[in-house]
Amino acid sequence: MSTPQATVKMTGGRLVTDLNTRYHRPALLFFLFIVVAHWAEHLVQAVQIWGLGWATPDARGVLGMPFPWLVREEWLHYGYALVMLAGLLLLRPGFVGEARTWWNAALLIQAWHHLEHFLLLVQAMTGSNLFNRPVPTSVIQLVVPRVELHLLYNAIVFLPMIVAMYLHRRPRREDLSRVTCYCAPLTSGAKGS
């Protein structure tokens, strides 16, 4: 069995190693599917509000229409933020060079986004809202309304993530020796069992 040119010491056990070597590409594609599905929910909600003129409480995205409680449950939004953070952390060791820099940017922004959702969750659970607001409120939400803020957060996490994935598929020659997966066409021929 052929392997990529370098082996990188990865912490976290066999699962993390497998996710960042032989299963990196399918793991990235699965993660991308989750991210794009979430993005679609926010984009549909935006169309409902600004394209169709619906009131914000009535604009619940695709899944929120048949299941309105999904939009109201803060734990669900926090859960997604946590899954996103975990995905960015788990798949990070497979990135090298410029791709790693862009992936790190997405990770840092998502860490802040996760913190904001944690604040919202704590407020929802305790019934004590920041700044005596009538609803749970995040820090940046004091300046940017919630729907617009989450569109912004999803965009500024998604864009560096996509740049990272693009660069990851096209590593620079000097980074090839550190590649540990089969995502790049130059390493895909080395795929074994």
Automatic annotation (TrEMBL):
Keywords attached to this entry: Membrane, Transmembrane, Transmembrane helix
Domain of life: Bacteria
TM region positions: 28-55, 75-95, 151-168
Identification of the protein by name: Uncharacterized protein
Organism from which the protein derives: Plantactinospora mayteni
